[in-house]
## 1
Amino acid sequence: MVKAKQTLTSLISAGALVLAQNTFSQEIAKNSKEISSLAPKNAFVRASWHSRYMGTFGFTLSDGPVTQNDLGFDIGKVSYNLWTNYDFDKGNGKGLNEIDNSLVATFQTKHLTIQPDFYWYTFPGVDFPDAFTFGLAVSTRNLPLDLKLYGTKSYGSSEGSLAQLSIGKSFQLNKRVSFNLNSALTYNNSYFVHGSGFTVVSAGANVNINLGKGYSLNTGIRSQKALESLGGTFKDHAAIFDFSLKKSF
């Protein structure tokens, strides 16, 4: 009887030890997964050249060539991006005259992508104070056309708002090459531009080439036309040619 009790006790102890080890292993795996989810992913660096600095929101900031380089990465559902503008036009403050930081969160359903964002704009070497914005984009996914509605509001040196409706279509020509068409209707109400609001229509096309080993090449053209006069030094019509090389990690 005593031997049987000892055997039963040993079995219970061994079972408890195995259970404890399994629980400990599960906790380690869970914690490792949580830590892994916070590690930066989808990192990239990109160098781009543009024939002029034409903002996507209805104004031209430089008539001369510029380079606009950026880098970014994702942590969980949040993407960080550091963006710079170097201007070769002396009339617009030649040199590095803009550095922007942004955070964008991404949430997806079957047919929608929802992205709240925050941007912090700084302008070194230029007589223009810092500004920051909060925005929200809602775009379609897994549909024949890419539709996007975007709204944002700026604070600080430039207080205004903007609304933009865009439509696009991508064509996968082969495994490495895709062709994209896009157009947008933008209403700008004092968003980085002083004065009354104005409306801009824009359209563009670009080709993206996957070069392999994480490298990709993108080149395109974009044009915009104001439906109302912009006034001041801003142009009521502008076109831009751009070229970029991207390395993903």
## 2
Amino acid sequence: MTRRNSTPDGRMSGWRGALLLGLVLLGCMMPRAHAQVREAVAHVDSHLSTVIPCHQLESEDFTKVPDAPTSVISATVVPASDSAPEYCAIKGFVQTQIGFELRLPTHAWNGRYFQVGCGGLCGMINIQNCGDVLAKDYAVAAQNMGHVSHFWKEPLWGDDPMLRSDYGARSTHATAVAAKAIIARLYGKQAAFSYFRGCSTGGREGLFEAQRYPADFNGIIAGDPAFAGHLGPISNNYEARQLLHRDGTPVFTPAKQKLLADAVMAACDGIDGLKDGIIDDPRACHFDLKTIACAKGTDQPTCLNAEQVTSARNIYDGVRNSKGERLFPGGEMFGSELGWDGINQRDIANAHLRYLGFAKNPSPTYSFWDFDFDHDLPKLMKTEAIYDPVAPYQTPDLRAFHARCGKLIVYHGWSDQGISPSFTLDYYAKVQSYSGGLDKTRDWFRVYMVPGMRHCRGGDAPNTFDFMPPVVAWVEQGTAPVKVVATQRAGDKVVRTRPLVPYPQVVRYTGHGDVNDAVNWDVHEPSKIYDDNVAWIFGPEAAKGPRVLIAE
């Protein structure tokens, strides 16, 4: 379907686009009482009870729910526990195979709906990841993204175009529609506010929702977004080739990985003014691999051989074709070295290329080594548009989400070993180009970079945090988030805490008190502002003329 009154890259033209942007601020300044005056909408924090018995949902007809024909398979009451209120546990599916589970408090619903994202290739229902939110009396849901499979193993379901579509964007939206219909039937009221949280594939789901289904959620938390169409066949494929030989043996031994990681930390750790084992912003580091390179033609335990130096340099730089054109906004950052795992990247690349990447699947023996970065990219364009919120040559356009007063928080670990943080920063920069710059964008969309954190979790740094209270306060009271405390634990012991702040702001130790206590850190504006808007082969710049090479 052609979008009228829009430019080729999806932007609204003329007075209609200007009118939408002009109404955004006015609409978001208006009181949020509209949620209370609409008929049959829940009041928040009112401890609502169900109006029909839980089990009755099994006989209710949800087959005519628009966009989400639904069947409830079971609905049973689960008694209260130390970690959760009594709730109605509901299992069902949305046509065709989108399996979901809901947990709806029977006597203490707070009027809000929460949906959690999945990870990897999904194929399971991770309702357990809603536990912290259910404990606060939210109605919660999770889904399997339209298929049953192993988290990583071969996605045989990729032969089915409908299941591909569900894995892309449809299943997340359809689950939200179905869940809200069931909630309205059970409580006799609609949810007042709806929230989504996910990381990796779940982060991608969140950005899909913000762009394609802006009415589904009022607040979205998207971590380390994994754009499957770009990552599997391109970035992960390239990194696997740097980390593995043709016979599958690793280029780096664990000892050589540690050697590299230790050298990087020694060179980069103190740049932010404090040696604490955390690289605050890896882009400020200018570590030279030559400092740990073995003499030509040798390989010793205390240095990297020539092959290892080349592989590391390529991983830091990121994937390019033979012309030097970037195929992804950037490579892995300094500080990610201990997480480099060619086996994981290989398996992701093979799974995507064999079953998801091409319009017609190749032989199951097709290898990531068979992919040609110069000639095979056009074959991926249709599927990239299925799996990624931003199709090739397009710019992310979240203005409809903004116009509905939606609030978006994206976070990304600086030491993410699987998805370069440059991808998220490029995305953020391109959103700003539609939203009037950084200051206006931060009114509704904020990015938090997490020093030392790997992909979604882990790393020798504060890496656990809770963005739910901040996003709820932002949506419902208009209180924009600033500091969010991250914690590092060793078992039950808190090792250290540190504040996270909206990018590009940074935090610095005050010089007084316990350095491992977040209260002793202040917010600072960065000394250097980076241009995060990268020209790369599937970016919007590439559609406007000849391919742009990135200057080194």
## 3
Amino acid sequence: MNSNQEKVCFTVFNQMKLQLPMWRDDRYANRYVERTFYNGVSIIQSKLFSKNARFNPKKLKVVNEHCFTPQLIGRFIFDNHQIYLNDYDKFREIYIIASTTIKTLDTENILLRQQNNIPILEKYRTAKIDLWGPTGFIKYDSPFPLSLPNEIIEYDKQIIKENLTNYKKPDIIHYEF
């Protein structure tokens, strides 16, 4: 990370510590509390591109896609605050992971953001987005070339399970004319 990214990381660490009393307190909007982390992540480019972004003859808009869902990682940090908000080095490691980006087309980024209840490491496979990296072409159905700590993978699975368990089908209102 460059010196500005280091400062932002340290600032986010301290902001999250200050906001910790608000976490899971029904008087506050937890979605906005957890976005503190999301709003502070940096852009640390991996050496990966989507195939469409790498070979882009139509010059479509290319963006830095945060491939590890920073908002979920922010939530993970709050739920594991005794580890990550008491040890700056551990926080910094997870901040770098959450800041990792893959260059994609803007349309691919939108597709990836719309995926709900899909494990982080399966999003590119589900969206059928092939990648291009230093070792060449990576087909979408290959294992994802970047890794996450196991505790985040398990947390992701737990959140998906909770979301699917708590999902309520919306009531359908029928109007007669």
